[in-house]
């Protein structure tokens, strides 16, 4: 398997699953931090502009800004260069769209029921119900806006993914095992361009 993209809801354990999967498979890993570092250091994009667009719905006036186009160009360039190395896990950033229909890719969506996501956020940030709900709803809104603005898609569209995992009844380890089994399936391996 060459490229695994992972899209997740905040509080679904998606980040932990992606990192554990990457470690078990020994694949390269691209996430928000490493991508931002590349965009700032290699391409000279101002850090505040990178943070303004990263998985957030830009403000109305941003639709008319050339900064948006520049950000998207360098985002795609960085992700394509990274994926060209092969055997990688790409966390978020519209990977399910950018690598759509490319042989040897596997697109995963990690979800969980809202109540469980809220409980996990309350525990992680040691906060009350109201703040946890605000954090989760803002994250959902920002990620949906980012995908709609840059890629013109509904990120919850099941057709964008090869596998959706609900972590309500799965541990991180179990989810990683399910993904590894799917990735190593005969059907997936046959489309691997590295084979």
Question: What does the secondary structure layout of this molecule look like, with pairings?
Answer:
Elements: E1 3-8, H1 14-25, E2 28-30, H2 32-41, H3 47-53, H4 66-84, E3 88-91, H5 95-98, E4 105-111, H6 114-125, H7 129-151, E5 163-166, H8 172-183, H9 186-190
Parallel strand pairs: 1-3, 1-4, 2-3, 4-5
Describe this structure in words.
Helix content is 53%, strand content 12%. The chain is of the alpha/beta class and 195 residues long. The protein has a 5-stranded parallel sheet, with helices on both faces. It is globular and about 40 Å long. The mean pLDDT is 85.
What's a concise summary of this model?
With 195 residues, the chain is an alpha/beta fold.
Give structural attributes.
53% helix, 195 residues, alpha/beta
**End-to-end gap:** 9 Å
Helix content: 40-55%
Radius of gyration: 17 Å
Strand percentage: 5-15%
